[in-house]
Amino acid sequence: MTMDSETLKTCETIEKDEFFSVFLQDKQEEKAKLATKMTITDQIGKLSEGLEKVSAQLQTQVRDQYGTLLFQANQAGRLNAAVGSVSGHIERLKASADRLKKMVNVPYEQTETQTKILARLHELSHLLRQSGRFLHVYQRLEGAPGLAEQAGVIYELDCLMDDVDLTGIDFLREEIGAVKAVKARLVQTAHRDLFQSIQGEKEDETKNCLRIFLNMKTLGKCLENILETYQRYIKDSIKECFTTSDLSKLRKSDPSGTKDRSEQTRGPGKAPVLTSSTNFRSKLWQALEWLFLDEFHSYCQQIIFLQRCLLYSDLALTDDCKRMAETIGSNFWTNLTRQLTTSFANAQSNTPHVYQALQQGLPKLLSVARGLEKKLDHGPFVFDEQVFASLEAGYLEKCANNLKMVLVDIEFPNQEVIDAVVRVASTELNAAIVDDRLTRQVTDV
């Protein structure tokens, strides 16, 4: 039997022993039973016997494997020495890295500090240059001969103030305040004079005002504001037409005024309203003629005049402003027709008596609209068919009712009835002849 076999046999003997298995498997119940079977002395003796067997086997293993253990111990010593050497190298490498880090960090921090100083010096020098430039341009503002030249100088000053914040510089505070005051006064004056010159169709004054906004690079915004203003005027004029019974109260509003149009046409007390009498219809159509042939015509003429001043002048328009100038007429007309369409549709619920009168008098309304087109004689300013579409159904129903009234309670029409039908049809067609579309629709009734 070999030494390994003896060791294995000893281990198996201990594991299979009933006494030792209790301790090896940690059986608490068996330990309690064991205390009743064996005395403490016997248990200690049994354990001592087992320990002696294990100790003997360990000594045998150490004796048999002495050379191997000694070799491993020797190798462990060498390994410890190698580990110690590597640790030393690592410490020296870390020290070298720290020295290298210091060699890099110190110049970097110095460079960073100098860069920050240089950046601050650059900002300061740029601020001083812009301040000097601001004062130089400001002197030109004081000597500018006209408003247009002032506008160009103000735009240049605005660019300088947008580039850097000059408001914190004490010695420029007074000049900056003066620039803002001049700009506000110039814009207000230009807006007022522009609307007045457009209304009076004064070409030179209009071009000068446009040149002011062009030099300030705000011409595009100015044109948008003009369109919005006229859109508001159109809305107010339509409202006045539908709600004002006294034609003498219908008057053109000064576009440069500051009061609201509704406030200009209404006094204290009850607001004047249209009645349902024949007098009401007469005044309504007078108001509609005023709306189309006076108000709308005036607004359209002013826009045509403005467009002519923009396109046929020496103004150096940018591409965006040129596109806006080319389309300002069509945009204005689109706003006008859209506002009319909306007003006709809303009148059905807001002012039903006006809506009914418009439906029944649609040919007259179309005649007034065609009168405006003829009076303007301007290609783009032509009403679309859909503008009056909301009124057509009511008018066609009226035409159909007029024809039905002739044939009421008549089973076999005679010549007199036929003549009456022809007269009614002729009357309706003669009324609708002002518009080809309406004529076709009346014919189909």
TrEMBL record:
In the UniProt record, does the keyword Membrane occur?
yes
Give the main location.
Answer: Golgi
Instruction: Spell out the Pfam families in the cross-references.
Output: COG5_C (PF20649), COG5_N (PF10392)
UniProt domain Conserved oligomeric Golgi complex subunit 5 N-terminal: residue ranges: 34-141
- Does the record's keyword annotation contain Membrane? yes
Q: Which GO terms describe its cellular component?
A: Golgi membrane; Golgi transport complex
Q: Which UniProt keywords apply?
A: Golgi apparatus, Membrane
Name of the protein: Conserved oligomeric Golgi complex subunit 5
- The scientific name of the source species is Culex pipiens (House mosquito)
